[in-house]
Design a protein that fits this description.
This protein is an alpha/beta fold. It folds into 2 domains: 2-82 and 223-433, Aminopeptidase (3-Layer(aba) Sandwich); 84-206, Aminopeptidase i, Domain 2. It has 9 helices and 22 strands. Helix 4 (225-240) crosses helix 9 (404-418).
Length: 434
């Protein structure tokens, strides 16, 4: 159970993408990783460990093997963001005697799960300093606002289904004090003068504690399981695993929930830029890079939908997945998920362990599912790709639920993955070395 509690601490320390990257960065530094900056030359050596951030909301770490015979890249990708509500630049709104925050929707949250829930604010501010502009993280841990439901007496049809309007129904109230200014709390939280704050990237988040529960403590419930459960478990596997002939790469991208099409998203050049710079930093040429990529693989780790206890009809009739029944391999004929027979077979063999089980997921043929990082990343880095995740309930809710056993299986599987070395042989033959 230690890893589950560690994961809850990791998630509760990461209310937004900025804190998630900061939490990962601190873990890497503790393990001896060296920070690189994209605006400086890279100096790469065999046997050493490095990381780099972009926009302070995406992070890429890598470990360089000592030998690098038959060099390949073994990559895992997850994402740091989650559906939420972002504060607008001018966000103070007076409404019938209440001070209210004006927000807009980020991603695809389940609206009604955010009602009547204590909320707070986190993110970053950009601050004017004597020699330029500094980035400061904001993490207000006390509840500061709430989005109240309309009483049933004023909305008799609420239990028959109500469409919530984000500009009307989903704005949180702060105070009855018309002189109250949220920016005072924000400035105090990051120890700056309010007048020096030039701009902000701030989001609402639920302040609920995470819980382990169930008769056998088999469930874990907390906000942002999608996708910080995968960000945490793949990080642990990455730190514990490794192979002397491989460059192991850990990525955690921002903006998956809004399509990844940003400078720091999976649809950016972030991954490929850094692979090229690693290659050059090791004194290798373009031909060396192409031969390495030909036997490389990326694991896209983003959670999957468990069968629902009250709606089993929503699951595919034969590819049913459930919490605590193993790592989910996700398939889609139209390649919304990048898994194919070859990548799935290789991944299963790389992660082989008596304690690891696998499940297969497809959407019902009459339902459209979501996409994820694998297909997006491989449009820039053309390598084998497999989409995986942990089974969970209530994806995009303000409180999501997954399994404790799956968490532990994912760590073990990714440690095995990073401790293996994929070698491409003649024709379509692949060899896995351990």
């Amino acid at each position: 159970m230690d890893k589950i509690q560690e994961m809850l601490t990791f998630i509760q320390s990461s209310p937004t993408c900025y804190q998630a990257v900061d939490t990962i960065k601190k873990e890497l530094e503790k393990e001896g990783f060296i920070e690189l900056n994209e605006n400086e030359s890279y100096h790469i050596e065999k046997g050493k460990k490095y990381f780099v951030t972009r926009n302070y909301s995406s992070i890429l770490a890598f470990k360089v093997g000592q030998r690098l015979n038959d060099l390949n890249y073994q990559i895992v990708a997850s994402h740091s963001d989650a559906p939420s509500f972002k504060l607008k630049p001018k966000n103070k709104k007076n409404n019938s005697g209440f001070e209210v925050i004006n927000t807009e929707v980020y991603g695809g949250p389940i609206f009604n799960t955010w009602l009547d829930r204590l909320l707070s604010v986190a993110g970053r501010v950009l601050v004017k300093e004597e020699n330029g502009i500094a980035l400061k993280l904001v993490f207000i841990k006390e509840p500061v606002c709430l989005i109240p439901n309309l009483a049933i007496h004023m909305n008799r049809g609420v239990n028959e289904g109500v469409k919530l309007n984000p500009q009307i129904d989903l704005l949180p109230m702060l105070s009855k004090n018309k002189d109250f200014d949220l920016m005072d709390i924000i400035a105090s939280n990051c120890n700056v003068n309010k007048e020096d704050i030039l701009d902000t990237d701030l989001f609402l988040y639920p302040v609920d504690n995470g819980y382990v529960w169930g008769d056998n403590k088999e469930f874990v419930s907390v906000n942002h399981l999608d996708d910080l459960q995968c960000a945490y478990t793949t990080l642990q596997g990455f730190l514990q695993g490794g192979h002397e002939d491989t460059i192991s790469v850990y990525c955690c991208f921002d903006n998956e929930e809004v399509g990844s099409g940003t400078k720091q998203g999976a649809d950016s050049t972030f991954l490929m830029d850094n692979i090229k710079r690693i290659n050059a930093g090791l004194g290798l040429n373009e031909e060396n890079l192409q031969t390495a990529l030909a036997s490389s693989i990326i694991v896209s780790a983003d959670n999957a939908h468990s069968i629902h206890p009250n709606h089993p009809e929503k699951a595919d009739p034969t590819n049913v997945v459930s919490i605590n029944e193993g790592i989910v391999l996700k398939y889609n004929a139209n390649q919304s998920y990048s898994t194919d027979g070859l990548s799935a077979a290789i991944f299963r063999e790389m992660c082989k362990d008596d304690s690891v089980k696998f499940q297969t997921f497809t959407n019902r043929s009459d339902e459209r599912g979501g996409g994820t990082l694998g297909a997006i990343s491989t449009s820039h880095v053309s390598i084998l790709s497999v989409d995986i995740g942990c089974a969970q309930l209530a994806m995009h809710s303000a409180l999501e639920t997954a399994g404790t056993k799956d968490t532990e299986m994912m760590i073990t599987a990714l440690e095995k993955y990073f401790s293996s070395h994929l070698v491409r042989g003649a024709g379509y033959q692949y060899k896995i070395e351990r």
